[in-house]
Each structure stands twice: as structure tokens, then as C-alpha cells.
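Propose amino acids for all 416 sites.
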């Protein structure tokens, strides 16, 4: 009985709010995974848009998320995390319910822009709510469980999406969209039933300007570091698959296996990977480990361009393991730093600023990293490794700078 209880403790979040948050994440992942599996197919075949129009729409949506993160994060601070979360989820449900009546490019552009705004508001509200509702010692572990259950939901949703696509009909494509709309509506109801909480304002935090966050130079430096480390996601999702297809002899179906490795690790190891992310010192250590894991991945993937058969497959699999390790360690460190460093009444604005500043590298990363990895013939992987070595070296001094800087008149020790 004791062994069974210990095993359950490893896969089940603690009872109460942590378990409810994990269940909500799984629900959200099912709807999102169902749609994302065939989103491009829906927009091109059902809505009749060209690939270029779809690409422009996604780019504009990304820009809206980038520019809107700070003001919408501030809005979440003002009206409360749970309310923002619910409004964002309901707005997203409405947008997806309208997608089937998309009448052309401009309608699509309006809807996908609205979707980006509602998603940004919901995410800001979620982080503000979790920062206020969870005890400091429980936050990172609960967020890790939520991320793991989100991945479980995405896996289930991807299977449902694939089944809908297998119908090869307009009805199947309609299922993709309406399933996500229903999931978001249920998600809003689920969140609305969570306990109400409010972040307490500090002594000088009556109504601080959200733009003042950008003048917190230590924090913007930290946000820039996050942005550089999250280039790892571009390597995983875009650059390595493109490298595998064009520069190695790996069979194309292998890409599905590589993505499965990432999902399995995220589900099984996310909670364990956050151990130590309960202090500034521990989070700094995880940031440095995250950087070094990607440094190690670069020569491994470069070598796969000169091997054959099973050796290539093994090297690509090892690359994904290392890149996933970066993701897991980086997530734990970022959850702690983004909830503990900001003054409680400004968590939304600080997280929005972090997303906006870090988003610059997300915009520049795909083209730059693809050029370095692919168009140099492979030697550019050493340049990419050097970028992450620089991030490893910068992590300790940047976090130390953040630690000793007061915010809104609150001494740093009190902010933590």
C-alpha cells in the first residue's frame, strides 16, 4: 500500500487547488491539441485561404501577442487573475466558434488577432492567479504538474485531431474547431469555480504604471536571458527537424518519434526537473544547466550530418533529449523567478514585459538559427553553441543584479 501511495504521489498533484489546476491544464490541452493537429489544414481547405495568407495571419497574431503582453498583463493585475483568465477563455471560445464562418482573409485576420489577444489575457490571468493563490513553497511544483498534465492533454487531443482529419471531410475539419471552442468554454467554467484570491499590494504599489516595468533594467536583462534560452524551442520545433530532413539520411517518419521523446520526457520528468527551483540560487543553477544542455546538443546534432543509419538516428535522439532537458530546467527556473521577483501587485505586468522583451529573440530566431545551422553547411552549430555558452556565463551575474535591486521602493529582500 505504501509503494502504491508513493507511486501515486509522483503522478498526482497534491489534493485541492493544485489538483484542480492540473485537471484544468489537461482539459485545455485536449482542446488545443485537437485543433493544432489540423489547424493549417482547416484554414486552407475549409476556409479556402492560401498558405501565404495563413502565414501572414500567424505572423500578425504573434505580433499582437508580443505587443499586447505588457498592457494585458497589467489589465490582469488590475481586474484580478481569475477574472482575466475566465474572460480570456470565453473570448477564445467565441473566436473559435466563429472560425467556421470565416468569409475570407480579412475576416480570418480579425479573428486570429482576437484569438491572440484573448489567449494572451488568459495566460496573464492564469499566471497572476497561480502566483497569488499558491503558497510560495508550492508554486513551482504545482506549475510543473500543470505543465505535465497539459502535455498529456495535448497528446490526447492530437490523437483526436488525427482521427478527425482521417474523416477527410469538411465535417471532420469542423470538429477540430468546435472541439477547441467547447474546451475553452468548459475551461472558463472550470476556472470560474476556483477560489477567489487577490494579490496584496506592497507599501508603495497603489497604481503603478505598467510601463515602469521596462525601466527595471535588471529584470529586462533577465527577460532577455529568458529569450535567448528559449531559442531552444526554435531549435527543437523548426531547426532540428529541418536539419534532419535536409542534412542527414534519417527517414522522415523519425520526426514523429523525436517529438514523442519530447512529450514523454515532459510528462514524466517535468516535476522532477524542478527540484531546486525554490530559491534564487537553485533557479540560477537550473538556468545554467539549461544553457549547458543546449551547448552539448549543438555538436551532437552537427555530427549527425556526417553519420549514417542507426548512428544518425541515435545522435538525433540524443539531441532531442538534451534540448528537452533545457526546456524542463528552464521552465522550473522561470516559474520561480517570474513569480517571486515581481512585486505581487505587478506580476502580470512583469510577466508581460518578460514575454515582450524575450519575444524579440523569438521573432529573429527562426531565420537566424536556420541560416546558421543549415545554410552554413553545419559549422554554424558552433556559433549557436557559443550563444548558449554566453547565456550560461551571464545567468549568475544577471540574477545577482536582479536580487540586489529594489522594486517600487520595496527592498529586494522583501520582494522575495
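Proposal:
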Amino acid at each position: 500500500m505504501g509503494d502504491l501511495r508513493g507511486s501515486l504521489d509522483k503522478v498526482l498533484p497534491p489534493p485541492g487547488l493544485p489538483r484542480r489546476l492540473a485537471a484544468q491544464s489537461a482539459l485545455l490541452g485536449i482542446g488545443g491539441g485537437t485543433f493544432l493537429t489540423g489547424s493549417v489544414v482547416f484554414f486552407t481547405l475549409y476556409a479556402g485561404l492560401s498558405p501565404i495568407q495563413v502565414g501572414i495571419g500567424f505572423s500578425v497574431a504573434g505580433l499582437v501577442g508580443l505587443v499586447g503582453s505588457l498592457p494585458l498583463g497589467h489589465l490582469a493585475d488590475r481586474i484580478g487573475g481569475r477574472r482575466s483568465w475566465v474572460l480570456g477563455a470565453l473570448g477564445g471560445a467565441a473566436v473559435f466558434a466563429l472560425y467556421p464562418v470565416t468569409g475570407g482573409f480579412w475576416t480570418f485576420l480579425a479573428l486570429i488577432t482576437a484569438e491572440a489577444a484573448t489567449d494572451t489575457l488568459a495566460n496573464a490571468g492564469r499566471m497572476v492567479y497561480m502566483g497569488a493563490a499558491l503558497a510560495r513553497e508550492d508554486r513551482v511544483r504545482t506549475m510543473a504538474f500543470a505543465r505535465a498534465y497539459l502535455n498529456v492533454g495535448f497528446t490526447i487531443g492530437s490523437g483526436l485531431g488525427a482521427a478527425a482529419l482521417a474523416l477527410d471531410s469538411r465535417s471532420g475539419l469542423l470538429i477540430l474547431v468546435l472541439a477547441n471552442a467547447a474546451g475553452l468554454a468548459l475551461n472558463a467554467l472550470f476556472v470560474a469555480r476556483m477560489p477567489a484570491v487577490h494579490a496584496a499590494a506592497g507599501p508603495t504599489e497603489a497604481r503603478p504604471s505598467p510601463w515602469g516595468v521596462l525601466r527595471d533594467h535588471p529584470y529586462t536583462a533577465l527577460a532577455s536571458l529568458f529569450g535567448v534560452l528559449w531559442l531552444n524551442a526554435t531549435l527543437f520545433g523548426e531547426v532540428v527537424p529541418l536539419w534532419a530532413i535536409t542534412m542527414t539520411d534519417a527517414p522522415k517518419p523519425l520526426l514523429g518519434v523525436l517529438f514523442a521523446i519530447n512529450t514523454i520526457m515532459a510528462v514524466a520528468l517535468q516535476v522532477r526537473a524542478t527540484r531546486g527551483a525554490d530559491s534564487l540560487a537553485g533557479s540560477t543553477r537550473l538556468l545554467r544547466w539549461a544553457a549547458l544542455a543546449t551547448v552539448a546538443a549543438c555538436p551532437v546534432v552537427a555530427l549527425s550530418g556526417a553519420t549514417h543509419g542507426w548512428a544518425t538516428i541515435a545522435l538525433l535522439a540524443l539531441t532531442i533529449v538534451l534540448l528537452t532537458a533545457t526546456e524542463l530546467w528552464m521552465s522550473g527556473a522561470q516559474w520561480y523567478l517570474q513569480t517571486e521577483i515581481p512585486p505581487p501587485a505587478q506580476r502580470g505586468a512583469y510577466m508581460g514585459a518578460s514575454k515582450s522583451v524575450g519575444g524579440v529573440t523569438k521573432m529573429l530566431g527562426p531565420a537566424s538559427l536556420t541560416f546558421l545551422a543549415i545554410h552554413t553547411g553545419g559549422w554554424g552549430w558552433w556559433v549557436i553553441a557559443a550563444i548558449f555558452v554566453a547565456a550560461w556565463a551571464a545567468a549568475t551575474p544577471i540574477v545577482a543584479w536582479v536580487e540586489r535591486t529594489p522594486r517600487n521602493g520595496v527592498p529586494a529582500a522583501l520582494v522575495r
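Residues 24 and 349 are 24 Å apart (CA to CA). The chain has a mean pLDDT of 86.
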